[in-house]
Design brief:
Order of helices and strands: HEEEHHEEEEHHHEHEEHEEHHEE
Helix content: 40-55%
Strand content: 15-25%
Number of domains: 3
Largest sheet: 7 strands, antiparallel
Length: 481
């Protein structure tokens, strides 16, 4: 079952079915218990009425037992013998004894005397001077059973009450109330549930299917548009955004944001490839021309020019390789190094600079940072190269501690960077007009590499105006501590 709609409809139907079955069973149990209690109460009333008559020494054959109300009654003595039953009672079960015929002594009058005179005297006493027995006031015992009255057998709820006559004889009264009403009500409710449950489940499944289909309709639109974008490779297209403001709308909005970022990334990649191809074409063409001229006319071979083009080509290839590694997510090293010592080392190796850089590094030290020594050296070198190209007479580099980090500042006294161009110069292959006229060999990758490396080391690279009138580049890196 691969359809979300089908799974949702099935899940909702199963949950509702379990809930309805549980609720239905609870309703049936409560209904049956209430109706059974009512039948038990009726049986208790009849049993106490008969017990009250027995406590007043009413003869067994004159007991009023509500025969017309379908309440079977059975009276037994201490020995379990039946002494009285209701009219037309033909069979009974659930009362401890199935006898429905009174014992001979009970039929004679209820006394167990040895001669007729004593029985007659007892009978006269029962008629003329009722005694004062008592009825057990405790809670009666209840039990279910069956009884056959006038040829019809039915289920009954029996209540058992004890009564004591004035002569101390204890009698037990079993009175029943029919359970037909309880069975009929429970059966009706059960039947209604069995009929209504499937209908209700069908309604739940249908409604869930329709609601889920309506809710997932925007998802299908997003899927179709994404499939079309994949087929056409047109990243300028966007998926439809529903106006519901729900999770699906947020999904569509996030998808469009992802497409926008992907389009920008692909565009940057294309521009990068185009710019790299352009930058590589110039030194390669120049080197080829010089080699072809040298092959035809060895005396005209410009060896220094070929070496310069080769060096330029090598530097450009190294820059492109580093950018590729950075774009691939290469993590910097975790080596702890002294940034002040690294600055001294880089400046000491630059023996052919047009303007030597003035170094200012406090002797107190404490300029340890964590990262890749090679990449950070490349950043310092790129900043010094940029300052050398634009400086008039002075280049300076300094190191200081600041706000939990270390700052390397490189300044020059050149024309500076206009405020509107201070972010654009960090883009790849971007060279300002002044840079193009002063340095035809620059590819516009040095500052872009420097900022990428600084960012991946948890730092930042910014530019602002220097007091000398030129540009001031500041590299901030977090301290190793």
């Amino acid at each position: 079952m691969r359809s979300v709609r089908a799974r949702a409809a099935l899940g909702a139907t199963v949950v509702v079915a379990l809930a309805l079955v549980g609720a239905g069973l609870a309703v049936l149990l409560v209904l049956r218990a209430n109706l059974t209690d009512q039948a038990g109460l009726q049986a208790e009333v009849v049993a106490r009425e008969v017990a009250g008559q027995l406590a007043l020494d009413v003869p067994y054959d004159r007991l009023e037992m509500r025969e017309e109300e379908d309440h079977p009654v059975q009276v037994t003595d201490e020995d379990g013998r039946v002494v009285a039953v209701s009219k037309d009672l033909q069979a009974i079960s659930g009362t401890g004894t199935g006898q429905v015929t009174p014992a001979p002594t009970a039929a004679a009058g209820g006394s167990s005397g040895s001669d007729d005179d004593d029985a007659s005297d007892d009978d006269d006493r029962q008629h003329s001077a009722p005694g004062r027995g008592e009825v057990d006031s405790g809670d009666p015992d209840f039990h279910n059973g069956t009884a056959t009255v006038d040829g019809e057998t039915a289920d009954y709820r029996f209540a058992t009450v004890e009564a004591t006559t004035s002569t101390g004889v204890t009698l037990t009264v079993h009175a029943g109330a029919p359970l037909a009403a309880e069975q009929e009500a429970v059966g009706s409710v059960r039947g209604a549930m069995l009929i209504g449950l499937p209908v209700l489940l069908l309604v739940v499944a249908g409604v869930t299917w329709l609601v889920t289909r309506r809710a997932l309709r925007p998802v299908e639109g997003i899927r179709r548009e994404m499939a079309a974008i994949t087929a056409s490779e047109d990243l300028s297209r966007r998926v439809p955004e529903p106006g519901s403001g729900d999770e699906i709308a947020r999904l569509a909005r996030t998808t469009n944001e992802t497409l926008t970022a992907l389009e920008a990334s692909v565009e940057r990649q294309r521009r990068f490839v185009a710019d790299a191809s352009h930058e590589l074409r110039s030194p390669i063409a120049s080197l080829r021309t010089q080699l072809e001229v040298g092959a035809a006319h060895p005396e005209l071979l410009d060896v220094p020019g070929a070496v310069a083009d080769t060096v330029r080509l090598q530097a450009l290839a190294a820059d492109l390789l580093l950018l590729a590694r950075l774009d691939a997510g290469e993590r910097p090293g975790r080596t702890t190094l002294d940034l002040g010592a690294l600055v001294h080392e880089e400046v000491s190796q630059r023996t052919g600079d047009r303007i030597p850089a003035a170094v200012s590094v406090p002797e107190s030290g404490g300029f340890e940072v964590t990262g890749s020594r090679g990449q950070l050296a490349r950043v310092i070198g790129n900043l010094l190269d940029n300052a050398e190209r634009h400086a008039e007479r002075a280049v300076a580099i300094s190191v200081r501690a600041e706000r939990g980090g270390v700052v390397v500042a490189v300044t020059d006294d050149g024309a500076g960077v206009p405020p509107g161009e201070r972010e654009r110069i960090f883009e790849r292959f971007v060279r300002l007009d002044d840079a193009r006229t002063r340095d035809e060999g620059g590819a516009g990758l040095g500052l872009a590499i420097a900022r990428d490396v600084a960012s991946r080391h948890g730092g930042r690279l910014t530019v602002k105006g220097a007091r000398e009138g030129g540009a001031r580049f500041e590299l901030w890196l977090p301290s190793a501590g």
